Amino acid sequence: HILDGNAENLDQECALYEEKIKLAGGVDLFIGGIGPDGHVAFNEPGSSLVSRTRVKSLAQETILANARFFNNDLSKVPKQALTVGVGTIMDAKEVLILITGAHKALALHKAIEEGVSHMWTVSAFQQHPRTLILCDE
Questions:
Q1: Which stretches make up the Glucosamine/galactosamine-6-phosphate isomerase domain (predicted)?
Q2: What span, in angstroms and rounded, lies between the C-alpha atoms of 34 and 104?
C-alpha cells in the first residue's frame, strides 16, 4: 500500500491512509530502508518519533539524493513528500529495516549502538519489540 502523491488534497490522503490502516487491523509487516542520515521513509532527522502519516518538507540532502530519479535536474525533484510517520511504523506488528552500503555504516551504528534520538529516526526501532535490521558487510 502506498500513498498517492498526486492526490488533490494531500492532507486528506494522509488521513485516509491512517484510516485504511486502522480499518485493516494495523500493519502486519513494515519493510523499509534508510538514508545515510538515518531517515526512515521521509522522516528526516529531527522528525517526531510519534509522528503519523503526513506531508513532509524534504531536507536538501534528500533532494540531492533523489535527483538521480529526475535526470539529475534539481528543479524537477519534489521539495515535499508524503510519508508514513515513525509512530505509524512503530504500531506495526513487525518491522524489517534494510541497510545497504558502506555509506550507511554510521546510521547503522546510531540505529543499534547508541540511544534513541529524533536526530536518527532509525534509532526509534530499538524500542520496537519485533524489529529485524538486515544489513550487508
A1: 4-128
A2: 8
Q: Which residues contact 94 (CB under 8 A, 6 or more apart)?
A: 28, 29, 30, 130, 131, 132
Q: Is 67 within a domain?
A: yes
| Cα 95 from chain centroid (whole Å) | 12
At 62, is the pLDDT very low, low, confident or very high (cuts 50, 70, 90)? confident
Q: Is residue 4 part of a domain?
A: no
Q: Is residue 2 a part of any domain in this protein? A: no
Residue 59 has pLDDT above 90, yes or no: no
Q: Please state whether the predicted TM-score (pTM) of the whole model is above 0.85.
A: yes
Amino acid 53 reads T
Decide: 18 and 91 in contact? Cβ < 8 Å: no
